[in-house]
Amino acid sequence: MTSWRALRPYPFEVYTWIVFGGSILFLRAFGLRMGWQTMDYTLVPMLWTLPTALGLGLGCQAVYHLLRRRRLSDLRQYALGLLAPGWWLLWVRLWFAAMLMTYVYFWVKVCIPLVNPALWDAQLWAWDRRLHLGLSPSVFAVELLRGNPFLPLLDAWYGVWVHTVKWTMAFFCAFAGRDVLRRRFMLSACLLWTLGSWIYMALPALGPCYALPEVWDGMREAMPLAEGAQKMLGENYQLLVAGRETGILRQFNPTRGVAAMPSLHVAAHFLFLLWFRREVRTGRVTHRLGRALVALFTLLVVATTVGAVVTGWHYALDAYLGIALAYLCYRVALWWERPREGERVLEEMTEAAEPGVEATP
User: What pTM does this model have?
Assistant: First the structure.
């Protein structure tokens, strides 16, 4: 493959650049000053996190290669794959797209009250009850788990959610000899977070903990992490509301936007489950490890869904729509990010070299 072909933009880059530019133009059309200062505040600090992402990815891949076949030769083969210059070039391009995706997510989400202040919480609460035969899942979860010793665990788990996202994204971006998989995974992630942020903008909702705080009376002491985060995000939201009403926008934090529908917490873990299931179905891991990975991420999806509802961050409907959105992004990534000329043969040769592997690019 000639060098100029290797530098052609991939679908994950084309999509991310379009939504990045489109988001800036959209917000500027509403009078928001989306200039270099916004990038300096969010994009530039992300550069300092790249060494950590690289270390996490390589470390997780090392453990994965040792566990999947229990052979040191697998780890040596993986290390040799890292020597290819193309691996490093794609890794940089993947994480640059992730940075643009994060920029879009932060700024679109935090600017919702400045662009579309109408809230859909009353409708979502009503739809949630109708969908569950007149019973509110939020009220049911609170009453069921009130005083339950697992409640602090759910609070703690929801607090470390962001770290699981970092680890999983670092892991998939660090595959060697699997460039199509890396690009597909990043495309699905960019689709998920950017489409999710624009759904937030189209149907703004704060979440049940803000719309009906009395439901959680007597529960907050058992969920200090959720209570602290909700207070922090609520104060930031009020700064934006005050700026909209007075025309004077005080200092706010763009990483503290508030939005409920869909739940990207649940969506992210379901998306990861889909990619791990695909990895297991190719036969690249032992049956025991494969079952363990699928069981683990299934448990994470369930725990995140329950945590989202019981802490009051989300309506149950948000979780269902998040799962649907994740599946859509997964399927679009498989369809759009296809192997280029020469890649299909190379990946099929890599797969065929391992016993019990289906040749599916």
Answer: 0.89
